[in-house]
From TrEMBL:
InterPro entries: FxsA. Keywords: Membrane, Transmembrane, Transmembrane helix. Signal peptide: none annotated. It comes from the Bacteria. The gene is fxsA. This is Membrane protein FxsA. Coiled coil: none annotated.
């Protein structure tokens, strides 16, 4: 599958460069290709700074302009397309950075993230599709008592109390 995608990318980019060369000449085609890469990198850097500030605000639980998980996934795709050499991939990368395209792709990315999360959680005990089965179990239940006693000091609300030793005081220095 990866080889097929790589071959398709190469065919499309070579065809686009050949078309530019045919209609505009080799010099203009090369200039347009290099200009598209420069514009792509400039926009990519600007968008990266905006995404980092959105992620910082989201980590502090402040309201953000977008959805950090979806925006990060779309930005990663846009970065890959922008960094790949060629006019077509740069245009696709720049299109992925525009607000209308991101808004249209947010539901798709969110479903993909949810599906991936549920697949990851499938291996976690108690997770979706985990090792626990909802149903009846046939057989004898043997009640065993445990010799393990929890001696963890707890507060009245049930939270764990941890008594951290204080650091030694630095010696007093005379001026």
């Amino acid at each position: 599958m990866i080889r097929l995608l790589l071959a398709g990318y190469l065919v499309v980019e070579i065809a686009a460069f050949a078309a530019l060369t045919y209609f505009l000449g080799f010099g203009w085609a090369l200039l347009i290709t290099l200009g598209a890469a420069a514009i792509g990198f400039a926009v990519l850097g600007r968008r990266a700074r905006g995404l980092v500030s959105d992620l910082r605000r989201a980590s502090r639980r402040e309201p953000t302009d977008g959805e950090p998980a979806s925006d990060t996934a779309l930005f990663a795709g846009a970065a890959v397309f922008t960094i790949l050499p060629g006019v077509v991939s740069t245009i696709v990368g720049l299109a992925l950075m525009t607000r209308p395209v991101r808004s249209a792709l947010h539901p798709v990315i969110d479903r993909g993230i949810a599906r991936r999360t549920s697949l990851i959680m499938a291996g976690v005990p108690g997770g979706v599709g985990g090792r626990y089965v909802d149903g009846t179990v046939e057989g004898d239940v043997i009640d065993q008592t445990s010799d393990v006693v929890d001696l963890t000091p707890r507060r009245p609300d049930g939270t764990v109390y941890v008594d951290l030793p204080s650091l030694p005081q630095p010696p007093l220095t005379r001026p």
